[in-house]
């Protein structure tokens, strides 16, 4: 029966006329359809799911309208308002208590459904059979179930709302006469069949890296099918690791034509029309930039002077918001990227180079527009007063951390002496205040790869953070705190940088682990940052300090961008936001817009602050993962020439399958499998952070010295295998076997990190948070500034 024939048996527009939102829809559309609210109301009145045709009949949808009506229902399904079940019937989502989630697949076949809007109840575990037909990143609707024997929430995936994987990068092979793509992303656990027609045109060679576009997605019985669209080349080609990471993590790396055209239309110098009555002239103020040697974009400049017992601190930040307006072509690309991504030897910028390295970069001796946080800091380190305003500046020097620190160490006469010494005195005051506040200090070793002219790693060196780095960091923190306070005081919504402390479950796990190791965290059920800081002091000189630091980090929650202020636990701030890097972080750009709106007694309102927070937080993690992949691959490639060589090292991690050893001088980590530790049965003792032989009593503990030989450097997995030459100590006293409860606690329950050992196999096992300091860790590799 056609829709028209069905309508002959109904009173025309009967239910549609009763739509309480009909007038609103008429203002939006010339021929309005039933409103979303009314569709949901009708479904609730029915009390049972309705087929699309039956629902259309009830709402008197004509043949001409049916296609548009179907689009509206599908849009409602994408937004989680309704569910179209497997029988094609439309259900009210609220009736089913559905949760919209993103799939996080694990390379071992299982996965987790992570709610897009966290409500504190945790993720849903999905077993291997439930993962069939799903792919990493898919957006799904889940019906909550019970709890499994390990205490994890179970759920049933009812519908795939949106597929995340459109294109897949991987290796091309022929298996039993069938062309397949073996994905680089190990979370895509199933091989993908390639269409024969697409192979003929491009003629890839077996083992080459290719990109394919998915034509049909997998289901419970069939694999995905894709057509070949690009042959990238051989796996070991120079720069291939970045090409793979960009595509594997779906990083936007090509600016749209509209964006590039808009960038070309932006002038390369400040023009007279850029001045308005509110813009302050700071061209004579001796502002300077202090960055790393290889930095090309300078988004912050600083100035300090003594005023009686207090100090004036001026932090000037590039005024990107003057050139990038909401929803223009550049803004759309910037929002999609959300952050710049830093790789060794290559950067994927958030903004076109004409802006990031040109008109928005605070280069020396040229006029630049900026947004200023002008503060008065007391001798005790308190910010007495501050103000924000747009300005024009002219940087007096482009200085480097190394240069400034050498001047401060050596003393004597040097350029900008008074300015730098005043900044340094102020830094000491702010640093003392940081310690009093109880901010948690995490100092982890960062490394930098030095390349030769042929693009090959020459050596890997530690990045030493000196007081010049920390000086800029403290200035940036002060400006960020003022920005958060300013927006809260003026009741303007913005993206705050929230970092919460431990959940009760994570806190209980941490306390039990610490107790077994003879350590104590104060604060009872609600420890403060000061309690964490005191704990860090307890183990700072222990050989297992790095692992203990990771345990502390894992007990806290990830830092995220959210429109509701919840404070920053790690930095011990009641409110914190990102103001200081609008060239490379989209949240900072929105903070600038919000501050300008307040100054002009207006409001800045994107489509959804909540959605923007989720998106920018996701993009930040995606960029971190991509950078880590490239760094691990490059280190593995570097170690291929070292196979057979012997190194001293220190045990930096362990799991039930072996020990991780960080090699001396080159700061690269490899693994000795538990079966290679000696002629004995070795067992992982998590409660004492050791691996111990059953009969010999030989024990390997965190921080112990060992001598190892490089056995293998596997580029496919970015893993380095080591064999033990010597090491391990005979324990004087045989330890007790851990209780089941202690062992379970030490291994840790499922959290957003999902598995501790998984992180260790990917690198140093460091959490992606807490991100402290003035700037991102990714950029720190270029500029020496820390992430917060």
From TrEMBL:
Pfam families the record matches: CSD2, OB_RNB, RNB, S1
Q: Where in the cell is it found?
A: Cytoplasm
Report the EC number(s), separated by commas if there are several: 3.1.13.1
Q: What is its main location?
A: cytoplasm
Q: Where is the composition biased (Basic residues)?
A: 778-788
Segments forming domain S1 motif: 644-725
- Which CDD domains does this chain map to? S1_RNase_R
Function according to Swiss-Prot or TrEMBL: 3'-5' exoribonuclease that releases 5'-nucleoside monophosphates and is involved in maturation of structured RNAs.
Name of the protein described by the UniProt record: Ribonuclease R
Origin species, per record, is Neisseria montereyensis
């Amino acid at each position: 029966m056609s829709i028209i024939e069905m309508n002959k048996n109904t009173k025309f527009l009967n239910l549609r006329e009763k739509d309480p939102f009909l007038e609103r829809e008429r203002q939006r559309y010339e021929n309005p359809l039933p409103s979303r609210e009314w569709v949901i109301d009708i479904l609730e009145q029915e009390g049972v799911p309705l087929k699309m045709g039956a629902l259309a009949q009830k709402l008197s949808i004509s043949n001409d309208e049916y296609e548009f009506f179907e689009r509206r229902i599908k849009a409602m399904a994408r937004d989680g308002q309704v569910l179209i079940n497997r029988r094609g019937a439309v259900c009210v989502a609220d009736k089913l208590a559905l949760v919209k989630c993103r799939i996080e697949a694990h390379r071992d076949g299982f996965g987790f459904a992570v709610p897009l809007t966290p409500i504190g109840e945790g993720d849903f575990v999905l077993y291997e059979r439930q993962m069939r037909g799903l792919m990493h990143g898919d957006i799904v609707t889940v019906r909550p179930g019970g709890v499994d024997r390990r205490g994890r929430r179970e759920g049933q995936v009812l519908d795939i709302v949106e597929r995340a994987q459109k294109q897949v990068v991987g290796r091309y092979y022929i298996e039993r006469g069938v062309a397949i793509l073996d994905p680089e992303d190990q979370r895509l656990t199933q091989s993908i069949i390639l269409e024969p027609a697409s192979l003929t045109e491009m003629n890839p060679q077996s083992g080459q890296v290719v990109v394919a576009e998915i034509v049909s997605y997998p289901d419970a019985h069939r694999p995905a099918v894709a057509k070949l669209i690009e042959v990238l080349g051989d796996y070991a080609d120079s720069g291939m690791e970045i090409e793979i990471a960009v595509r594997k993590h779906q990083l936007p790396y090509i600016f749209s034509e509209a964006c590039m055209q808009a960038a070309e239309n932006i002038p390369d110098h400040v023009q007279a029309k850029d001045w308005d009555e509110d813009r302050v002239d700071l061209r004579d103020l001796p502002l300077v930039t202090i960055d790393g040697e290889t930095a090309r974009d300078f988004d912050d400049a600083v100035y300090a002077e003594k005023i009686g017992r207090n100090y004036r601190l001026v932090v000037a930040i590039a005024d990107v918001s003057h050139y990038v307006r909401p929803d223009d072509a550049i803004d759309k690309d910037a929002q999609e990227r959300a952050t710049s991504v830093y790789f060794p030897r290559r950067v994927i910028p958030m903004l076109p180079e004409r802006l990031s390295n040109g008109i928005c970069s605070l280069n020396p001796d040229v006029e630049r527009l900026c947004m200023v946080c002008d503060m008065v800091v007391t001798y005790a380190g308190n910010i007495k007063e501050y103000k924000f305003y747009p300005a024009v500046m002219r940087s007096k020097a482009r200085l480097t951390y190394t240069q400034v620190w050498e001047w401060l160490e050596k003393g004597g006469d040097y350029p900008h002496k008074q300015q730098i010494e005043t900044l340094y005195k102020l830094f000491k005051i702010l640093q003392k205040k940081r310690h009093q506040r109880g901010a948690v200090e995490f100092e982890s070793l960062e490394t930098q790869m030095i390349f030769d002219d042929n693009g090959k790693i020459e050596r890997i060196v530690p990045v030493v953070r000196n007081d010049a780095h920390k000086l800029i960091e403290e200035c940036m923190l002060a400006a960020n705190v003022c920005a958060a306070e300013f927006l809260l005081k003026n009741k303007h919504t913005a993206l705050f940088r929230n970092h919460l402390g431990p959940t009760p479950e994570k806190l209980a796990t941490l306390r039990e682990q610490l107790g077994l190791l003879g350590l104590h965290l104060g604060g009872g059920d609600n420890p403060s940052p000061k309690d964490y800081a005191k704990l860090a002091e307890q183990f700072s000189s222990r050989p297992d300090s790095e692992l203990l630091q990771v345990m502390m980090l894992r007990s806290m929650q990830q830092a995220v961008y959210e429109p509701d202020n919840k404070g920053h636990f790690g930095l011990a701030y009641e409110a914190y936001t990102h103001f200081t890097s609008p060239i490379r972080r989209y949240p900072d750009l929105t903070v600038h817009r919000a501050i300008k709106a307040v100054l002009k007694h207006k409001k800045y309102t994107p489509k959804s602050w909540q959605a923007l927070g989720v998106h920018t937080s996701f993009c930040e993690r995606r960029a971190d993962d991509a950078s880590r992949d490239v760094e691990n691959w490059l280190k593995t490639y570097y170690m291929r020439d070292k196979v057979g060589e012997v190194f001293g090292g220190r045990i930096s991690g362990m799991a039930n399958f072996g020990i991780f050893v960080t090699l001396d001088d080159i700061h690269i980590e490899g693994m000795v499998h538990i079966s290679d530790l000696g002629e004995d049965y070795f067992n992982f003792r998590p409660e004492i952070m050791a691996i111990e032989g059953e009969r010999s009593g030989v024990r390997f503990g965190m921080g112990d010295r060992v001598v190892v030989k490089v056995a293998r450097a596997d580029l496919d997995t970015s893993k380095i295998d080591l064999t033990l030459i010597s090491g391990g100590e005979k324990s004087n006293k045989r330890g007790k076997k851990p209780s089941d409860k202690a062992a379970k606690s030490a291994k840790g329950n499922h959290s957003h990190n999902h598995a501790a050992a998984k992180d260790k196999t990917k690198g140093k096992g460091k959490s992606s948070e807490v991100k402290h300091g003035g700037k991102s860790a990714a950029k720190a590799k270029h500029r020496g500034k820390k992430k917060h």
